[in-house]
């Protein structure tokens, strides 16, 4: 069985080798990471039991990416917070929240790039403006994360409230975001 409803099936053998049934070739975790980046849909199955092990293989890819480079995406504080939700009553809410947040983040990123390209095209100015905008999206993600943490505190009153300094920093980030949006609106009106 080479494909399952448009998805590429990757078989993982006991010797840890991964076999792409769509191309009839062996692949590595790095190859799978590139497939994800290209938007290719695949599932990973244990070759013997045909159990779906996609989640554990994708987690393994993230682990390798985090340990391979000095540029980690997952801050320690995020990892610690995530671990606290295992076994918590909010555990079933976290995956959908994270999925929604990443989807919104991706959509905002695409919209901002499109607006910069419309306003400035492929000029050096347009390319230089994209970097601060990408950084601005991180502040929105941080604001979403803070809102999530506040929502979690409502359900778990024993969690420690955020420090005043952290709240002030996040308020500053939100103010910067508002200023960024105001400037972006001015650019759009030009």
From TrEMBL:
Pfam families: PHB_acc, PHB_acc_N. Residues 9-68 form the PHA accumulation regulator DNA-binding N-terminal domain. Signal peptide: none annotated. Residues 74-113 form the PHB accumulation regulatory domain. InterPro entries: PHA_DNA-bd_N, PHA_reg_PhaR, PHB_accumulat. One of its GO terms (biological process) is regulation of DNA-templated transcription. This is Carbon flux regulator. The lineage of its organism: Bacteria, Pseudomonadati, Pseudomonadota, Alphaproteobacteria, Hyphomicrobiales.
